[in-house]
Amino acid sequence: MWFPDIFPILPFLLPLAQAHINRQDVVSQFNPVRTAYFNSTPMQVGNGDFAFGVDVTGLQTFQSFATMSSWGWHNFSLPTAPGESSVEDFRGLDWWTHGRLVNYNQPNPSQNLISNWLIQNPQRINLGRIGFWFGEGANLTQADISAKNQTLDLYSGVITSTFNVFGSEVSVKTAVDPASDTVALSIKSKLLNEEKLGVFFDFPYPKFGMKFDYPDVGRFDNVSSHVTTLKQTNNAAQITHTLDSTTYYTTIEHPGSIISGPLPSSHRYILKPSPDSSELDLTVNYSPTKFSPSNSTDAQSILKYAARGWSYYWESGAFISLPTSVPEAKEVLRRTILSQYLLAVNGAGTTPPQESGLVNNGWYGKFHLEMIAWHLTHWRLWKKPEFLNKSVPGLYTRFLQTSKDRAKAQGYAGAKWGKMTDPSGSSAPGEINSLLIWQQPHVMWFAELEYRDMPCNQTLQKWDEILHQSAEYMASMAWYNSTTKHFDLGPPMYPVSENTNPNATINPVFELAYWRFGLTVALNWKRRQGQNVPRTWTNVLNNLAPLPIVNETYPIYEGVPEMWIDPVTFTDHPAMIGIYGLLPPTPDVNLTIVANTATKISEIWDFENLFGWDFPMLAMNAARLGRSEQAIKYLLDVNFDFDDVGMPIGGPRVPTPYFPGSSSLLMAIACMAGGWDGDGGSHFPEGWDVESEGFWRCL
Ligand SMILES: *[C@@H]1O[C@H](CO)[C@@H](O)[C@H](O)[C@H]1NC(C)=O
Ligand SMILES: *[C@@H]1O[C@H](CO)[C@@H](O)[C@H](O)[C@H]1NC(C)=O
Ligand SMILES: *[C@@H]1O[C@H](CO)[C@@H](O)[C@H](O)[C@H]1NC(C)=O
Ligand SMILES: *[C@@H]1O[C@H](CO)[C@@H](O)[C@H](O)[C@H]1NC(C)=O
Ligand SMILES: *[C@@H]1O[C@H](CO)[C@@H](O)[C@H](O)[C@H]1NC(C)=O
Ligand SMILES: *[C@@H]1O[C@H](CO)[C@@H](O)[C@H](O)[C@H]1NC(C)=O
Ligand SMILES: *[C@@H]1O[C@H](CO)[C@@H](O)[C@H](O)[C@H]1NC(C)=O
Ligand SMILES: *[C@@H]1O[C@H](CO)[C@@H](O)[C@H](O)[C@H]1NC(C)=O
Ligand SMILES: *[C@@H]1O[C@H](CO)[C@@H](O)[C@H](O)[C@H]1NC(C)=O
Ligand SMILES: *[C@@H]1O[C@H](CO)[C@@H](O)[C@H](O)[C@H]1NC(C)=O
Ligand SMILES: *[C@@H]1O[C@H](CO)[C@@H](O)[C@H](O)[C@H]1NC(C)=O
Question: Which residues constitute the signal peptide according to the record (predicted)?
């Protein structure tokens, strides 16, 4: 449901728009085509909250790619050991923090069972598998299918797949309804008349303890751990799937067919079409509540809705084309267009996406609150706020109480946002999880970007309490050192680069700059509303520690041993460079020092161990420093790759896909097309043709 309610009337409004780029032509150049099986990633259709990943047959026939949603989650049963049998039993660890013991949400070695349970639960589930059935006893393998040819039409959100089997052609169109979690299938083949083609449905159980579960999700062989039941009515069937305390419904509308099953020792059901037609249209809806079939959701209607929703998507908001003949431009544009498609499928839901979206599971399917600025900011810069709107700020409102409880339990004021999170708002235990702080100013970031779009009291009020509580925490955790007369951040803490000693980490460059940015926005928020500004906030802002400098460069944090000498200081995220390009420069940022740091990074950083958003962050910095060629080099670095359908490759440290790579790419493209405050316009290299329309300037 990622399109606005007004979308049905939009086709009439479109001709009035100022668009001058023929967007459909640009987009369609990059329609992915597959003619072979692909082990690592599916082609996908979806709506931001729900996605269906298919193999080259257009279904999940031979490769059980996943069907995933924002709402499908499961808990394994709690441990039963004494003192570890409930969530409330969990006690974390106490660490010294400026002279007092503070309890952190970290795994407790004397409570391994409940610590691990809290990390591993809930996990996001694969809702089910849909594949071709080739007749009684056929038992085909991948090799029996020939002449495979599959195209994803990006502009209409439809995958068309054709192949040959038993000497006959099969073709199928696959789409997802923009407004419901429904897959539409339109199948054509003579084999339907011959009872040699049907469709199977299968249901997995989650794998236990799988932090990363890819390329497929769940297992189909743990049959006795879960239950499915079938209820048939005329032309429809509903399969209820119960896995422990999770239950959801699969509703299949299939005119003229019957479903049988489950097959012995499985949860597999078979739809055998009646032999009087060579066409089979069906819809499959997945829902946490019982879904009532209606005549508005037949497959052909959904194919039309998908086309309308997607044309609205492509024609609204900003757009860029790079008609330059240099091959680099074509590849940058390919990645940009495919990222736009995949983020609307995987990253526009009612909760922020996990790093692997709705493709497979990373970190048990949970989403990370420090990452959501990467996942979601591009929606606003590309002027598509309705895709961001569903999760933010509603998510922060929902999590406010648990975040206030978290701050209070540690003796701080305000609200401390969690880290590795699920829809209930609980944050998974972890040493790094509990000691990261850069998620905290994200609310100011989102609020300020929204205020540019809608500078009105409604925006101010909507964000006021969230900003207030976040700023209260930020002011309260900064620690006053009476010798230096500065407020310090940490220790203990982890900065963005998660490989420092937390008990020694103090005043990291990125976090200091982000604290300044965040508190400044919070103060302005109060002033804009004519309210008093809390003195503690001003005091911390005015006396925050200065950005540390080492040999005319910005280091990771103040006093980091052997910066630029010990490789550990140049292997993880080079977040200090984010203070110019990602963040707007705060008054104390020295651009000579920034430029020196950028040069040093380009010379010695360990790029092989970087991933995803590091490269667009470096590109934004380079572009803003006027080094456009270097920006493009970063965007096309060999360690920052996208596969044939545009899935961002994870690299040596995370599995594929890693969607922060896509969303940060779109952010960098927006900044390079629209420029920054005080430095607007194109920041692409000299000689590139850039046609762009509608971007916001970056902050
Ligand atoms: C899993 O258990 C936690 C803790 O009891 C609860 O908050 C959450 O809602 C449960 N989630 C699911 C999907 O059952
Ligand atoms: C940090 O200090 C705490 C005590 O406050 C200690 O328990 C912990 O092991 C230390 N962590 C590291 C990584 O040194
Ligand atoms: C189906 O084929 C596979 C691979 O050829 C084989 O391992 C399996 O036993 C066959 N199953 C049946 C039911 O014939
Ligand atoms: C695949 O299908 C497309 C669209 O129908 C067609 O243009 C293309 O030639 C086909 N490719 C192959 C290898 O058959
Ligand atoms: C099957 O599921 C049960 C939970 O119901 C779990 O304890 C068991 O480990 C699973 N088996 C396998 C092989 O994953
Ligand atoms: C179902 O179709 C009938 C006849 O076309 C129409 O009047 C009715 O509104 C439709 N129902 C829904 C839910 O779209
Ligand atoms: C965002 O959502 C709010 C309601 O939550 C709505 O008032 C506003 O119009 C939406 N903005 C956009 C651009 O969709
Ligand atoms: C205060 O800052 C000084 C100078 O950086 C440092 O030596 C001292 O350890 C700090 N005090 C505390 C208690 O952290
Ligand atoms: C916005 O709020 C301010 C302060 O509360 C008030 O003075 C102003 O009139 C309001 N503006 C509008 C347009 O309502
Ligand atoms: C600063 O540069 C000097 C001269 O190159 C070098 O000897 C020293 O180790 C550097 N210090 C740090 C902290 O990098
Ligand atoms: C910025 O840093 C350079 C190099 O250390 C220095 O020469 C210059 O004075 C600094 N600029 C400001 C405004 O502090």
Answer: 1-19
